[in-house]
Each structure stands twice: as structure tokens, then as C-alpha cells.
Design goal:
With about 350 residues, the protein is α/β, with parallel strands linked by helices. It folds into two domains: about 140 residues, Rossmann fold, CATH 3.40.50.1370; about 160 residues, Rossmann fold (3-Layer(aba) Sandwich). It contains twelve helices and nine strands. The chain is globular. The two termini are about 25 Å apart. About 45% of the residues are buried.
Length: about 350
């Protein structure tokens, strides 16, 4: 006999959403997520976080190492009354003895949400294709949407009174990374002007600029891809990221030679930005490479507020993507099941 799933997550939900990229959402939807972040952050300050993830679990797949993404999701689940499961390649059979499709189907029947940091876009896309619970992209080689939510929230917290996101210009210093790509699309969707400042060899690919062109038509934003460091003078937000990632160690010396010293964020460089400009960095920071310690510790740096807001973002994500499917049983239903189980136990 084929027994249907008893999962309280209710398989094959209508209207279920995944979070693969911020381009999947309207600015209104992102604003809603950030409003939820605001309320949850206030509740955390008062040690009064509603248990909105109680009885739920998030499967956290990590093909690559992480500090902020792992800790923030695991702590977020705990603070909300739920549970986070850390799943490394040595813990599960993903892509080895078990297909991506089957992994998604099994985890969907046991967990309420899946978060994955993957080495290949095909992995996160495959999980989303087969999962019957929401899948959250914790970073792949294309996008880093959870970072974007924390970044937007941090910028809004620290921008001048009366300013709007659309009043700002953000400069990303460095390579066309997943973070840079995500910022390009997020900023232009919100009407923020965006600049990537870095060597020509490492500038943004055309396919993403084509998407940004469409966003600019709708929002009135603009973007500029340039190797001119002096363009920093037009910017209110300066953003740093590593000049090489873990998969690029064989290119490390070549990359550092291309980026240093011209594109390193220093106190002198920050002084050239717009008055009151803020410094963000997705971390981890390689001191004295893409940013100096002096700049990272400057009064204008909000990098560690940004890191803390990863936790704020993950709390909101867990609630936002599961709340509409939460099954809240009545006291009568809870009593009925308790009585049935207890009566059975008495006979054993």
C-alpha cells in the first residue's frame, strides 16, 4: 500500500516560493521581508521573539564552508523555536550515491525548509525543482540573496534621515563575484545607482548587464562598469569583497597583482567618497588585501552591523517562507491525538 506523507508541511503547496535570487521578488515583497526583519530585530532586543518556527526544522546543506550563513540560520531557527540541521557533503549522499532530485524529495518530507550553499548552480536549481518545501539559496556561483536582504536592511538603518534607497549610489570595489552580481540587480531594481570599480578583465558579464538594463528602465537607476577609482567620489556606499574565492586559490597571485593597490579600500579611498559614505563588506575580510583593517574599523564602517543583520535576515526568511503553510491545531485536535497515543502506551 502506498502511504501518503503525514508531513504537516502539506506537500505540493499552492503558491510556494523559493528564494534563489533577489530578482525573483518585487521591491514590495522585499520591503515586506525587511519590515518583518525590523520587527524581529526589535523583539530580539527585548528577548521576546515570537516562536514562529516552533516545531519546524531547516535542512542546511553546505558544500562550501561558511561562518555567517551557517551560524545565522542555525541561531535564527533556535531563536524562533525551531531546529537547524547542518548537512555537509560527508553527512549526506547529495550528488554521490543519491541524486539531487531524491535528496530534495526526502528532505521535503522531513523538514519545513531547505537552505543550501552550493558549488554549482545546477544543485540549487535541482533542489528547487523537486522540493515540496521552500528552498533558500545560501550562495551559489551566481547569487547571494540572503546577503542582499541583510545589505539593504543595513543601508536603510544607516542612511541619512530623509534619504531613500533610490537617492544612493553604491560602489562595489573588485571582481564580478556573486555578491557583485546580486548587488547590481538589487540596486538597479530599487532605483539605486550602481558602480563596479575594478580592472577590465574582472568586470561584469554582459548577460547580467542586460537584466540590469531592464530594471533601470523601470526604476530610473543607472549603472557604470569602470576601472576608474576616482569614480568613488560619486558614491554614498562603498562595498568590499574578496579579490579571490576558495575555488580561485590557483589565481590568487594573479588576482592580487591586478587589484592591488589601486582597488584596495583604504581610509584615503573612503575620504574621496561622498560625505557620510558608509563602508560595507560581506566578510570574511582579508586584511590588507581588499580592505585595510583601519578602514574596516573606521567610524563609517557598518560591516559588523551588516554581519549581525544576517541573523535578522535569516529569522525573517524562515518565517516569511513557511508562515503561510503553518498548521495550527486546535486544543481539541491536540487532545484527541494525545489521548489516542497515551491510551495505546498504557497497553504496551
Amino acid at each position: 500500500m502506498k502511504t501518503p506523507s503525514s508531513s504537516a508541511t502539506d506537500l505540493n503547496k499552492q503558491g510556494m516560493e523559493h528564494m534563489i535570487s533577489m530578482k525573483d521578488f518585487s521591491t514590495k515583497e522585499m520591503d515586506n521581508m525587511m519590515e518583518l526583519m525590523d520587527y524581529l530585530k526589535e523583539a530580539r532586543k527585548d528577548n521576546a521573539i515570537p516562536q514562529l518556527f516552533e516545531g519546524k526544522s531547516v535542512a542546511m546543506i553546505f558544500e562550501a564552508g561558511s561562518t555567517r550563513t551557517r551560524v545565522s540560520f542555525e541561531v535564527a531557527a533556535t531563536l524562533l523555536g525551531g531546529h537547524g540541521l547542518f548537512l555537509s557533503p560527508k553527512d549526506i549522499h547529495l550528488g554521490g550515491k543519491e541524486s539531487i532530485d531524491d535528496t530534495a524529495r526526502v528532505l521535503s518530507r522531513m523538514c519545513d525548509i531547505i537552505m543550501a550553499r552550493t558549488n554549482e548552480p545546477e544543485t540549487i536549481d535541482g533542489l528547487a525543482r523537486m522540493s515540496t518545501v521552500p528552498v533558500i539559496n545560501g550562495l551559489d556561483t551566481r547569487f547571494h540573496p540572503t546577503q542582499m536582504l541583510a545589505d539593504l536592511f543595513t543601508i536603510k538603518e544607516h542612511m541619512k534621515e530623509g534619504q531613500k534607497l533610490s537617492d544612493l549610489t553604491l560602489a562595489f570595489m573588485g571582481d564580478a563575484t556573486d555578491v557583485c552580481r546580486s548587488l547590481l540587480l538589487t540596486c538597479t531594481k530599487y532605483g539605486m545607482n550602481f558602480k563596479q570599480i575594478g580592472p577590465v578583465k574582472y568586470q561584469m558579464e554582459q548577460e547580467w548587464l542586460d537584466i540590469a538594463d531592464e530594471y533601470c528602465k523601470e526604476s530610473g537607476a543607472s549603472y557604470e562598469i569602470t576601472d576608474d577609482v576616482e569614480k568613488i567620489s560619486e558614491c554614498n556606499v562603498v562595498y568590499g569583497d574578496s579579490f579571490y574565492w576558495v575555488t580561485q586559490y590557483d589565481e590568487k597571485e594573479e588576482r592580487l597583482a591586478a587589484f592591488m593597490p589601486d582597488y584596495v579600500i583604504t581610509e584615503e579611498l573612503m575620504a574621496k567618497a561622498q560625505p557620510g559614505a558608509m563602508l560595507l563588506h560581506c566578510l570574511p575580510a582579508n586584511d590588507q588585501e581588499e580592505v585595510t583593517r583601519e578602514a574596516l574599523e573606521g567610524d563609517y564602517s557598518v560591516a559588523f552591523d551588516e554581519a549581525e543583520n544576517r541573523l535578522t535576515a535569516q529569522m525573517a526568511i524562515l518565517v516569511y517562507f513557511t508562515n503561510k503553510f503553518t498548521v495550527t491545531p486546535s486544543e481539541e485536535v491536540k487532545k484527541m491525538h494525545a489521548d489516542k497515543i497515551n491510551n495505546l502506551l498504557k497497553t504496551l
